[in-house]
């Protein structure tokens, strides 16, 4: 079978904060990049836009970040034909210097000379009793429902998290008119207090966090820290959420929806298929594709920007996107504004200090993994329970993740381990008494997301 | 800190045949060390289609396939775990009159080996399997053939071998092996083995091992290209192949359809393999051609891996032509999965009895003694 593979000098994957700033900088440098994005409209997850015809005020959608959102959304209309923008297009494979895409016109191939991967992040999911009940969403999912569809996930919503997304979503939901039944953080308050000085490295963001927390308090929402043993209750759908506080006392609220996820994880599949070297980050318990300060990966010609190569948040993503574009042009021996590069490097260094404090303030909630009962489903695509994973690790000599997958089918379903892989690795490591880095990571294979047989249905 | 072992038999490679041989050799009370470069069963044994197929094999392979097929019925009990073997039957489809004639000829030949195939005309095929596409003009059905889960069989044999007392060393690639007067010295990463016998079951790497003993064995890398759909309602009741071998397809009861055709990308030197996009998209088109209902089904994953292929597409099995007590078993050319359990027994027989009860003369390594590189090794073969 033959089809045309087009060629491009520079390709950017992802039209979130990193990808948009990268594309913009490439155009400024005289290139005409191809910008590929899965979504209908640019903005990424954080600045996701409602579908055309359902527009709402930016201030209402993005709060404090409205200005940034508006600025990013204005980039593509301004660039117009200076860029080859391809929305609604999935990059499902990277092999050598070639991308395989699925877009409105079907399958396509695109050869690149230079590639910036700005693939973003998704919620980190950890199973807890009742997590597969209808009515349980991730925090990111809850936010998307609000931003894109203009709906809340329920009328009476309980929110659970392990990161700065939690107070933000609580604030957004309260403003949107939802009743908030509980706002629960599974990490301890003490860690936030201890790391507050470090977080002032980015004073504005720190102040915003405080403001959200304060506003939540004014709205009567108490953010509870150090929450343990959360449990979604209900038979056919969520009717309540139970938990224990740090002192071990039992609590329960009625609710018809739960938003729960535990930090973010980078979407690393494309960097993996591109052959980028990965390293294990012990603080966030994730395998992260490595990049230098300017965004160069270990593979010549492949650059990484934004949350897809270590979560840094939207502001950092914008800086990294632009910086990676400058690096790309430097490597092409095109003239760049070196002063601008220095400025970006300085800002990124400051942000890195803030990020380290932030990560320490929301430490990895390992107690949730310790509490996973044997009958809990870990991989919902394949229906694999914790008991199966533990027994396989003990009895069938599965010492690393790909063996565990081969023996149990964990990670073989539609998500390819993006949802279940993290918890499975933690369980495997605990069962074997190993460090989680020692059990490795699932090997990537295309397609990174499902593609239809025989073109579009 | 090199570990030193002294055993009766050292086996290079940890695939199904190697580990099955280790089990059989332990039953004969010989001491065994298996040296596997990565994980047992993770090479060709684990990355194939999972076909348990006799039909369509080279006639010389049929006696081995018949012997292996008898073992498959009992494999769950032997291995103590479910290898998901299902005798779904294997149906080989003809898409032209010439193809049908080929099936007819093969059915006649196979009868001489005790393999009964049922030939079906276009109407009979459509009555039996109404979900097949219109291009099918006839078929040959092997009712006893079927499929199993390739990912679990090799590791299960390795586990059994270990339980029986075989020494298994994984992540121990062999760097060198030499014949000494008394036997062999084999050097792998982290372990050095003295043995009376040596078995070369090194798959894609077996040609290099053979060359250490002055033998030609032109093993070319062979990389399957496998795709898996999301679970669909179960309807593909037979394992499917075609004359020409460019597409093969099966469905497991939990719903996923597994199909392949053509070869992926491979880097034999670094042991890397990946599915190739052109091949994957081509296989999708051909899959829809024979099973139209698959159109629009979502492919959720794919895989490749590394097997060793011989120029004549049949393996090397038997004693070395240069070195006493060296046994070869490799080059299964994309269809060794079904044979594996029997190959293990044959290796053990060659060591314990000096000869196999199965006819292995066609697989002698000496057939490549005068082989010149550049011969035709790129013919499409049916892989499973």
Quick tags:
heterodimer, A: 457 residues, alpha/beta, FAD/NAD(P)-binding domain, Arc Repressor Mutant, subunit A, 3 domains, seven-stranded mixed β-sheet, 15 helices, B: 384 residues, alpha+beta, D-Amino Acid Oxidase, Chain A, domain 2, 2 domains, eight-stranded mixed β-sheet, four-stranded mixed β-sheet, 27% helix
Description:
The complex is a heterodimer of chains A (457) and B (384). Chain A has 457 residues and is of the alpha/beta class. Chain A folds into three domains: 5-122 and 265-336, FAD/NAD(P)-binding domain; 125-262, FAD/NAD(P)-binding domain (3-Layer(bba) Sandwich), CATH 3.50.50; 372-439, Arc Repressor Mutant, subunit A (Orthogonal Bundle). Chain A is 35% helix and 22% strand. Chain A has 15 helices and 22 strands. In chain A, the strands form six sheets. In chain A, strands 1, 2, 3, 4, 5, 6 and 19 form a seven-stranded mixed β-sheet that branches. Chain A has a five-stranded parallel β-sheet with strand order 8-15-9-10-11. Chain A has a three-stranded antiparallel β-sheet with strand order 12-13-14, with no helix packed on it. In chain A, a hairpin with a 4-residue loop joins β17 and β18 (286-289). The mean pLDDT of chain A is 92. In chain B, β15 and β16 form a beta hairpin. In chain B, α1 runs parallel beside α7. The two termini of chain B are 40 Å apart. At the A-B interface, α14 and β22 of A face α7, α9 and β19 of B. β22 (451-452) of chain A pairs antiparallel with β19 (298-303) of chain B.
